[in-house]
Amino acid sequence: DADVTQTPRNRITKTGKRIMLECSQTKGHDRMYWYRQDPGLGLRLIYYSFDVKDINKGEISDGYSVSRQAQAKFSLSLESAIPNQTALYFCATSHLDRGNYGYTFGSGTRLTVV
Amino acid sequence: AQKITQTQPGMFVQEKEAVTLDCTYDTSDPSYGLFWYKQPSSGEMIFLIYQGSYDQQNATEGRYSLNFQKARKSANLVISASQLGDSAMYFCAMRDSRYNSGGSNYKLTFGKGTLLTVNP
Q1: pLDDT value at position A41?
Q2: Are B107 and A110 within 8 A, CB to CB?
Q3: Spatial distance between the Cα atoms of B115 and B86, rounded to a whole number of angstroms
Q4: How far apart are alpha carbons A85 and B60 in whole angstroms?
Q5: Which of residues 37-56 of A touch B (CB under 8 A)?
């Protein structure tokens, strides 16, 4: 099993629909992140969480919300999807490894809003 | 302000030759980390190499090495003996440790990426 699992892998949804992207991890890492990737823009941070009670906005949080249901689960919601939210979404975790923070990424969720 | 700059949208290299992918960064934090990731066409993010700001030597991992020039704030990735499977998008990223009200930050900021094509 993957260390960081994202579901679904692909989703097509209609404008105005609510959609949730889920992320779970088996490594016990405290820190979890949601990024979106658009062609030519790299990955941009949407939200991040350092523990269950700590949720922070990233640089592009408008139109998104998150929930940290447990240490291992971090969900991203689009309350009312719009076409410019079509992107590749990544969940990631981070952990202290040999004195430095390493990051583990999920396989990504490809979301298309029509 | 953009913190990570990758000036090469695309690069081409012949198989078996070496290639350098450029990355410059901007931070006022004395403690930071620099990462390179590979993203093949399948989409997953594959960690390649890491350099800490206090590391005395340049990082190496197999055919990957990081040319870290701290004074110039550059962290170029060098791939030796390119292979066809190296064709992918490559991202440079920086982790800083600036503190916010909730404690240390440790977010990753990415560059826009360089698409590398290895020709046979």
Answers
A1: 87
A2: no
A3: 10
A4: 37
A5: 40-45, 48, 50, 54, 56
pLDDT at A72 over 90: yes
B110 touches chain A (CB under 8 A): yes
User: Which residue do the tokens 């292979």 mark?
Assistant: B83
Contacts of A107 in chain B (CB under 8 A): 43-44
> What distances in angstroms separate CA B49 from CA A59, B18, B30, B76, B77, one per listed residue?
25, 17, 20, 11, 9
Determine the average pLDDT of the residues in B26-31.
86
pLDDT in tens, B47-68: 999 999 999 899 999 999 999 9
Phi/psi at A2 (nearest 5 deg)?
A: -70, 150
Residue B1: Cβ-neighbour burial (10 angstroms; 0-12, 13-18, 19+): exposed
Count of helices and strands (H, E) across chain B: 0, 14
**Residue B42, C-beta contacts closer than 8 angstroms, at least 6 positions apart:** none
| Contact yes or no for B22/B74 (Cβ under 8 A) | yes
